[in-house]
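# step 3/5: fold
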Amino acid sequence: MSNNEMKYNSTSLLQAQINHWGKKRDIENLIFFTKLSDDFHLKLEQNHSYNIVLMGDFFSALTALLEKKIIIKNIYVLSNAVKEVIEHFFDSSSLSIIVINRYELFPSKECLYESPKRIIFSGRLSQSKNFELAYLTVWHLIQNYYQDCKFIILGQADNAKGIAQAEDWTKDLIANTKLKDDQFLLYERDDVYLNGFNNFRFNKNQVEVMSHLDSTQWLEYLDPKHDILINLSAYYMDDFGVSVAQAQAIGMKCILSPIGGHLDATETEPIFVPTQYIKPTSWFNCPYSKRFERDCGLQISRYIKNILETKMCNSFSFSKSNLPKEIKTPQELYQFDFKELSSDKGLVFSDTQQGRSFFKKYYHLWMPIRAQKKALILSSYEVFYWFSMQDILPEAESLWFEKLAPTYDIDRIAIHEQTDPKKYIKELLSYDIIIITKLTLRIAILIRNIRKFKKDINFIVYTHEIPSLLGAPYKYLDLEETFQENDLFITSSQADNSLHQMTFSNSKSLIIPYKVLNQQVKTSYKPKPDFIYAGRISEQKNLHTLIFAIFFLKKNFNFENVSLEIYGKEDHFGNPNMGKTSSSYLAYLLELIESLDLTENIAIYNFISPDDLKEIYTKKQKIFISFSLHHDENFGIAPFDALSLGTFSILSNWGGYQYQNTLFSDGVELIPVQSSTHGPFICPTQAAQKIAAILNLPRLKVQNHAKALKKNILSSIFFDGNLSLNALTQTQISKSLNKQYERFKPHSGAHYGKVFTGFDDPIFLEICNQYGMKDQMLDFNQTSMILAPWVHIRPDIISIHDPYLGNLTIKRDQQEDRQFSVYSPNNKEVIVSEFEAKTLWQMGRLYAK
């Protein structure tokens, strides 16, 4: 049976019940309109009056009837929500609108529910029906609470965008026990944002698809005592819900979205899901992410479980909307509010200010909002060239959704390159809180204008790289005068929080890690000299020093079998905030490995998937290692992922890496970062010595601190939005850097461009001090000193080609008599003067063996 036939059966069943209802009341010649393609209105005579039944796409059908000036005796509709929408947008003074009581069509029975054994979805498997949200909700219910329950899917996929890319995906669902990504790429660019439903797979004995049943046969398979129907549709044409009516007619419990026709389905103790967890199925060019749906599914499952276990009835009374009426003529509706009215698509909202305004008002009537306050999560696709952002932004959205959902109605908008932010400004003024997960130029335009019109709105801003630049990006984004004391800034580590406080003297900030743990981590294993690095292949990550430390570990501490696997992709970013362009860093690393005779010990691989990395972390018991000196290393997604899977980590004592030592009580060892006359450095010989000591431990332990758990992080979030509206005050050091940045700003490109004068910039060095840089640990040693491989001594000059700190030249001192022997990595003796040796030592390019 085709999907269209199933849809027709459901409609014809409802029409038959209405005809029977009409005959009992002596109402004859009922004319049904289910969609605009029902062209009966073309055959109706203008001098006759008719009894019209509006079903489905009632809005466009009524628009067409009024445009043709058909005389309507009575309009029969299937829910109070339909009547309210009509009365709001149409001149109803001359219309007689009668709501047919759903329980006169399908009388309900007393609820017979005892305990859950099966959860039933019946209807079109469609984006418009929120099938994905129902799927996720049931998955959480079965996995977390009702393991013996089964998910029964009664229906077929329709042809809506993103559904049923495969010819018969229902068979695929049973065969592979999961929904494939290409079948659920619901929104534009969502394939970039997150990868489908891979982590939400049912076992074969937990799911069954029965797509062959028609709209009456499915009732034969139901057990009202142990079956629950779930319907979370947010569709703007769901004016009745035949499957819901049929289920209630046999005394079956239902889990329902509070929309349209469902609002009248108050008998048999339904569970109405809070409105803030149900979102409209389209939002123009600003899509909801799958992560948002996943969070909603989790929250709905918890809500349902509490209702079922307490045996509460949560039937609500929904009050009429207090929106002022906005009556329009059919011509106005055609012109402003519809993208098109066609026989194929019916009512489609246009992506214009009028269309979006109409859409929101329509849904305000169609799906009453219970939460008194409104929050918006504002994200961006524009920053996904940073791979870590594909983790960070969804995590931030998820955390705030869970924190605010009980008391706020939450929306999410994702801005991308094609978005014109100005067209959303007016609409966003209705929110009480806006959570900005990442500042971009387009988002800056939005919030700058919002603040002009609404001073008391509260911004919650994720700062990311901005503290490590002491607020210079605020100048780049033209936000210097936008923020106030009532705004809250989210930093990702103690180091970043300190830098934020160095930027503003009167700002409120809160440390929230980019990622959180849902459960305890506790592992222990015997150390082996097997190391792994995963992340960007970039000068900022200081991989050349790490390789040199591995060289000393092998040479000085006899770890001949030491192994380092590097996974990542070269980013070619260079160091834009220093004005340093990218070198061919990957090629340099390969040459360095060969020159140090480490080709048997170190291998560099391309980027691999998170699932492949997870397998390495969980099965191979390696040690994660990173010597990053990136001045924006404000958290450390890669080491956190490794630690969360029980992998011991050796990290530079730098920025957000220090915070990992706070989140994990065991499992992190920090390598000192030392100061030099040209910025921070890690001494490879001292690092090798510390690594050797770690490898000689009897066992490596990894255990998280309680503060890393999500439940504790959620409880620590406190936001007082009633603070002063005074503007923030920049500190003197921040003003100085902004003034300096002003000179470079005309030449700025990606990543804000040049900010510092160089690695010896006093402001940069002060930032490094906050990030963990300390004075050199050892005094100048006159014997057994080794040069960095990137130092080249020639008769007249000493040239330094440091991939991270850049190129420097020192003119040789020909006058000094006192000389020293230093050694290259291959143990070749080189004669230098005392002054030259001390200079190289102070620059962090000469090390004690």
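# step 4/5: annotate
The chain is about 30% helix and 20% strand.
# step 5/5: archive (pending)
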